[in-house]
Every structure is written in structure tokens, then in C-alpha cells.
């Protein structure tokens, strides 16, 4: 521990600036300016250099790699699929859910889509929210509400709410897919312009 602190100080800005100023003191000594007080001059210049050195920059936080986030999200999506396989849904809601999960699976599939998505933190957040929160909560709310609906008939059926929620989630996922397509198209156009400019 003490050794690592000493090594850290040796590489610090304070020490490096102090050493540079101390070297200046040695130059003054060899030119005869410092005289017999050269140790005090060298030490004083080292201390002054250490005091005027700029402060150390804090180290950047180590954020997780976006592709690692997508790997975690793929695992969560598989768990979501296992949960949804055990839930009985009416045909209309089941069809909407299949459309949604197919689109989410396509967005999470490794390849160019995932590469573009990894560069879009908002997109990763939206996809994560859909997989980890929105879809499971919508289905779970339907499962819980369906039981109560049997005891209080006459209200709007819970499957209608589920269909609407799944439709809205599907529209969000489609919007994300369209944004990723536009990003990739812009990147291709930019690369084409670069190649054209290089030819000229």
C-alpha cells in the first residue's frame, strides 16, 4: 500500500513539476548563482514547483461497455420469453405480443443493428425499459386484472387494455428501429461522400 502511494506520488504532477524546478536549481548551482546555499535553493525550488503544479485530474469512471449491456439485455429477454411462454393470453393480445417480441428480438440480434444500437444510449435505455419493465408489467397486470374482471362483469375487458398497451409498445419499438435505420443510412451516405472526396 505504501509502495503504491510512493509510486503514485513519483508519477504525480507535483513531483514532476518540483523535479523540473529542482533541476533549474542545479543549473543555477553549476553556473555559480546559488553559491554555498545551493541545497536550500534546490530544495526551495523543488517545493515551490510542487506547490504551483496543477492539480491531478480525477480518473474517468469505468462505465460498462454498451455491447456488454446488450448481452445482459439479451439474457433478460430470454428470461422474459420463458415467462411469457407460461402465460395464457387471448388470441388478439397473443398476436400483438408475438409481433412485439419478434421486433424486440430483431433489435437485439447480434449484427449491424446491435452495433448501431450500442452507439445510441437512449435506444439501449428504451429497449431495456421495454424488456425489463413495460412488457412484463403489462402482461402481469392483465393476468391479475383478468381474475377480478370475472367477479365484476360489465367493465371494459382487461384484454383490450393489454392489446392497447402492446400496440403502443410495438409503435415505440418500430420508431426505435426506424431511427436506427436512419442512423445507418446517414453513416453509409457519409462514407460514400468520404470515398467520393478521396477520388477528387
Reconstruct the topology from this structure:
Blueprint: H1 2-10, H2 13-30, H3 38-52, H4 66-85, H5 91-108, H6 112-118, H7 121-151, H8 158-199
Give me the number of helical elements.
8
Number of strands: 0
> How far is it from the N-terminal to the C-terminal residue, by CA?
59 Å
- CA radius of gyration is 32 Å
In terms of per-residue confidence, which ranges show pLDDT below 50 for 5 or more consecutive residues? none
What is the global morphology?
Answer: elongated
Structural class: mainly alpha
How much helicity do the residues have? Answer: over 70%
Query: What is the overall pLDDT average?
Result: 83
Give a quick account of the main beta sheet: strands, pairing sense, barrel closure.
none
SSE pattern, N- to C-terminal: HHHHHHHH
User: What is the beta-strand fraction?
Assistant: under 5%
Can you characterise this structure?
With 200 residues, this protein is mainly alpha-helical. The chain has helices spanning 2-10, 13-30, 38-52, 66-85, 91-108, 112-118, 121-151, 158-199. Helix 7 runs antiparallel to helix 8. The protein is elongated and about 105 Å long.
Amino acid at each position: 500500500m505504501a509502495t503504491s502511494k510512493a509510486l503514485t506520488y513519483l508519477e504525480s504532477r507535483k513531483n514532476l513539476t518540483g523535479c523540473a524546478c529542482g533541476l533549474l536549481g542545479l543549473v543555477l548551482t553549476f553556473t555559480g548563482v546559488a553559491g554555498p546555499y545551493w541545497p536550500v535553493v534546490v530544495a526551495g525550488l523543488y517545493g515551490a514547483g510542487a506547490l504551483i503544479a496543477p492539480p491531478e485530474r480525477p480518473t474517468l469512471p469505468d462505465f460498462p461497455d454498451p455491447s456488454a449491456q446488450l448481452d445482459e439485455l439479451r439474457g433478460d429477454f430470454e428470461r422474459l420469453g420463458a415467462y411469457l411462454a407460461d402465460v395464457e393470453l387471448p388470441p388478439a393480445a397473443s398476436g400483438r405480443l408475438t409481433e412485439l417480441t419478434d421486433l424486440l428480438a430483431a433489435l437485439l440480434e447480434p449484427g449491424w443493428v446491435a452495433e448501431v444500437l450500442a452507439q445510441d444510449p437512449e435506444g439501449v435505455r428504451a429497449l431495456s425499459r421495454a424488456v425489463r419493465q413495460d412488457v412484463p408489467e403489462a402482461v402481469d397486470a392483465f393476468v391479475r386484472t383478468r381474475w377480478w374482471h370475472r367477479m365484476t362483469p360489465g367493465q371494459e375487458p382487461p384484454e383490450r387494455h393489454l392489446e392497447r398497451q402492446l400496440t403502443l409498445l410495438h409503435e415505440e419499438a418500430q420508431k426505435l428501429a426506424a431511427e436506427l435505420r436512419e442512423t445507418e443510412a446517414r453513416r453509409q451516405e457519409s462514407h460514400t461522400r468520404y470515398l467520393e472526396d478521396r477520388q477528387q
